[in-house]
Amino acid sequence: MTQSLVVAAEQRQADRDQAAAVGEAEGRATLALLRQLRDDDWQRRTDATEWDVRTTVSHLVAQAEDALRLRTMLRRELVGRLHRRGKIPVDAHTAVGVDEHRSDRGPELVERFAVLWPQAVRARRRRPALLRRARMSLGMPGVPRVRVAYLLDVILNRDLWMHRADLARATGKLFVIAEHDRHIVAQVMRDLALQWSAAPVALELTGPAGGTWLIGSGELVAVVRADAVAYLRALAGRDDNVDLELVSGDAAVLTALRQARIPF
């Protein structure tokens, strides 16, 4: 291994100030990509099931609206549960927000995102400690209840990052990586390590947002290498057959790494 090994489970969860800085940076990166979209990009399919580019951007706008107005978020949650019973709760909720923007043109959505996302980041940072300590369901099967702070400070930035990757892949635009991307990767590695039950592995993530992470505790059984963005896509359920290179050790860990999932 050419890089120092970082114990992923020892990483601290982002606090509200860190999350705001990362949220602002990721918002700028996403907006820069959105402003490159052309007329023929909006109907391109993305890796997110059932969503094209325009639908994905409408979700980002709806998500910012939810963060700004708790009443809007709760209304969409209720409507989703009542009228979209065939979907898991998180998908039902997002479907309501997307549907409310079904008549909006792509460029209009970009301008709404440009205005609303920075406001949403500031609103999330201001949420009171009492609310942040409350526990909630993320609406995803098998995912335990979490504190509201985890949604505000980790998940919402991570979700935007993954959708930026979806949009870049769908449209052939460059996925630009900056310093804040390293923070997002670190938070994902933290979550992976905290839920990891397989034998300990050194995971070398390559690329500008990469690093070498200890996943699990005890004596290492393998060293595995993967592209950072590609592996985060796999953790989000975007790629069941992500390319993993066994540098050394027990090949059995490759299955565990491919099957692992983290909420985005």
From TrEMBL:
GO terms for molecular function: metal ion binding. Residues 25-168 form the Mycothiol-dependent maleylpyruvate isomerase metal-binding domain. This is Uncharacterized protein (TIGR03083 family). It comes from Micromonospora kangleipakensis.
